[in-house]
Write a structure and sequence with these properties.
The chain is of the alpha/beta class. Helix content is about 35%, strand content about 15%. The protein is elongated. Bound molecules: iron/sulfur cluster (2 copies).
Length: about 500
C-alpha cells in the first residue's frame, strides 16, 4: 500500500484498488428479518416501546430515549417483533448489545406519519425536530446526530456538504450523487433554509466527474456552488476540508462552527430530503461491498439486514475472507457476517485473508511524523499512549488525531499506531470521567465536613449566647429578688412602726 502514497503532509493520493466500469445501485431484496441495535453511536441506549409479538409497520418508532443527542429507532420493515435480546453488533469491541429483531411479513407496509408541510414555511426548530424524529444521523461514518449539529449551526455563514468519499474503494456517495442529484441539491436547500447560511459549497473529489456533472445539471440555486477538490486521502476530514476550501484553520480543540462553518455529509443531505419532502424516516442506506473476494458494487439495503444478506449479492468467491466495515484505513474488522447493517455502515470490505505483519519495536525513524496529515507527532504520541500517560499525549494534541492510519501504513515496524491512539483517547475520557467522579465525591466530602464544622460552631455560639442570656437572666432575677426582699422588708418595717 505504501506505493500508493505520493505526497506527505498534503494528503495522500490513493487510487481505488477495486474500480468498477459503472457506478450502480442495486436494490437489495427485503430481508427476512432485521436486527436493530438500541445503542447508537452517541448517547444513551434507547428504550423499546414495543414488546415481543407486537406487529410493526415500516417507519414505525420502536425505541426512544430522552437523551438530546439521540434519535428514535424505526422499524425498517413491517412484520412482528421476534426478539429483544443481546446480539453481536458491528463494533470493534466485538461485544454484544441489546437489539430488536423484526421478522418480516414480506409486505413492507409503511406507517402514516405526520407531515411537516412546505419546508419554506417551517421554522428551523420545526424542521430540526422533524429531522430528529426521522432518525437522521451523519451518514459519513462519524454518526453524529444531525439535529444536534443543526441546532448549533444557526449562526453559521457557510454550509459545507462533504461529498468526498472518505477512502478509496468506497463508492456509495458517488453512486448516490449520480443517481439522486436532484434529491441531494434539494436536501442542501433545506439545510440552507434551516441554518440561514449565506452559501453552501458541495465539495466533491475530482475523481468523480459523473457525480460532479450530475449535480451541476440539477443545481439551479445561486447560493449553492459545487467545487471539485484534489482526490487525496483525509481531505474529507472536516478541518482539512475547511482548510482546502477556504484556507481557514480550525485551532486544536476548536469546532468548525467556531469559525462559522457547518459540515454535513452528502448522504445526510439526501436523507433530509427523504424525511422532509417524502416524509420518510431513515430506514435504509446505500452500502458499497468491495474487496478482493467479491464483485464490487453498491446496494440499497434496509437497516438491520445482515452483512451476509448483501455480501451474498456481491458474488463472493469461496476463499477465506477478512471482513471490515468502513474503509481499508479507518474501518473496523468484524468477526462475522451475521452483524447488522447500521446507519454508519457505508462500506463492507471482503478481502482474501492475509497473514498479519509481525509488529516490531519502534526504531525512531520518524516516518510517521512526516505522514500525519494533521501535523501531529505520532512517534511521541505512541510512547505516551503505550505507557498510558494520556495527559502527556493530550499535550501533544492527541484529541486532534483523526485516526486515519496514515502513520500506520508507513511504519516499517508495523506498529498499529492509530489503535494505540484510539485506545488512549478512550482511556483519557474514562480517566476524565473518573476524575470528575472523584472530584465530585471529594467536593461532597469537603462540603459535609464544612457543614458539620459549621453546625458545631453554630451550636457552640448558640450555647455561649444562651449561657450569657442565662447569666443575664439570673442576674436580673437576683436584682428582682433583692428588690422584692427590700420591698418586703420596707413593708414589714412600716407595719412594725405602726404598732
Ligand atoms: S492516525 Fe492520527 S497521528 Fe496517525 S497520521 Fe492519522 S491523524 Fe496523524
Ligand atoms: S514510523 Fe514506526 S518505527 Fe518509525 S518512528 Fe514512527 S512508530 Fe517508530
Amino acid at each position: 500500500m505504501r506505493d500508493a502514497f505520493s505526497a506527505f503532509n498534503d494528503g495522500i493520493v490513493m487510487t481505488n484498488p477495486y474500480p468498477v466500469d459503472q457506478v450502480e445501485i442495486v436494490q437489495a431484496p427485503l430481508p427476512d428479518k432485521v436486527v436493530l441495535p438500541l445503542q447508537q453511536r452517541i448517547g444513551d441506549e434507547a428504550i423499546p416501546c414495543v414488546v415481543v409479538g407486537d406487529k410493526v409497520l415500516t417507519g414505525q418508532i420502536i425505541a426512544q430515549t430522552q437523551d438530546v443527542f439521540c434519535v428514535p429507532i424505526h422499524a425498517s420493515i413491517s412484520g412482528t417483533v421476534a426478539a429483544i435480546d443481546e446480539q453481536i453488533i458491528p463494533h470493534k469491541s466485538g461485544l454484544k448489545s441489546t437489539c430488536i429483531t423484526i421478522q418480516s411479513d414480506g409486505k413492507d407496509v409503511w406507517i402514516e406519519r405526520e407531515d411537516c408541510g412546505d419546508f419554506l414555511h417551517c421554522s428551523p426548530e420545526t424542521l430540526i425536530h422533524h429531522i430528529q424524529q426521522s432518525g437522521i444521523i451523519g451518514l459519513g461514518g462519524a454518526g453524529f446526530p444531525t439535529h444536534s449539529k443543526l441546532s448549533k449551526s444557526l449562526d453559521c455563514h457557510t454550509l459545507i456538504i462533504n461529498a468526498t468519499e472518505c477512502e478509496p474503494g468506497i463508492m456509495c456517495d458517488d453512486a448516490l450523487m449520480q443517481h439522486y442529484p436532484r434529491e441531494v441539491v434539494r436536501g442542501v436547500e433545506i439545510l440552507l433554509h434551516i441554518s440561514g447560511a449565506n452559501q453552501a459549497v458541495i465539495a466533491i473529489e475530482d475523481d468523480k466527474p459523473e457525480a460532479y456533472r450530475s449535480l451541476l445539471m440539477f443545481n439551479h440555486n445561486d447560493k449553492i456552488s459545487i467545487v471539485q477538490i484534489p482526490t487525496k486521502y483525509t481531505s474529507g476530514a472536516e478541518k482539512l476540508l475547511i482548510k482546502t476550501l477556504f484556507n481557514v484553520e480550525i485551532p486544536s480543540g476548536g469546532f468548525a462552527t467556531d469559525k462559522g462553518f457547518v459540515c454535513q455529509n452528502v448522504a445526510t443531505s439526501k436523507a433530509i430530503f427523504d424525511a422532509v419532502i417524502e416524509n420518510k424516516p431513515l430506514v435504509s442506506r446505500i452500502v458499497t461491498v468491495t474487496g478482493s473476494g467479491v464483485v464490487p458494487n453498491n446496494f440499497a439495503v434496509r437497516l438491520g439486514a445482515s452483512f451476509a444478506h448483501i455480501v451474498a449479492l456481491a458474488k463472493p468467491d469461496d476463499k477465506q475472507h477478512d471482513i471490515r466495515m468502513g474503509g481499508m484505513m479507518m474501518g473496523v474488522d468484524v468477526a462475522t457476517l451475521a452483524v447488522p447493517i447500521c446507519k454508519i455502515s457505508n462500506c463492507i470490505f471482503v478481502n482474501h485473508t492475509k497473514a498479519k505483519p509481525h509488529v516490531q519495536e519502534c526504531i525512531r525513524c520518524g516516518q510517521c511524523n512526516q505522514a500525519c496529515p494533521v501535523g501531529l507527532l505520532p512517534q511521541q504520541l505512541y510512547w505516551h499512549a503505550k505507557s498510558e500517560h494520556t495527559d502527556r499525549a493530550m499535550d501533544y494534541n492527541l484529541r486532534d488525531c483523526i485516526e486515519c492510519r496514515c502513520c500506520d501504513v508507513v511504519c516499517p515496524s508495523h506498529i498499529p499506531l492509530a489503535e494505540y491512539f484510539s485506545f488512549a483517547k478512550a482511556l483519557h475520557q474514562q480517566q476524565m470521567r473518573e476524575k470528575h467522579k472523584t472530584d465530585v465525591a471529594r467536593e461532597r466530602f469537603e462540603f459535609r465536613e464544612y457543614r458539620l464544622e459549621r453546625n458545631k460552631q453554630e451550636r457552640a455560639e448558640m450555647m455561649a449566647k444562651k449561657k450569657i442570656e442565662l447569666k443575664k437572666k439570673m442576674a436580673n432575677d437576683k436584682v428582682q429578688k433583692d428588690k422584692i426582699a427590700q420591698a418586703m422588708a420596707r413593708v414589714k418595717k412600716t407595719k412594725q412602726d405602726k404598732k
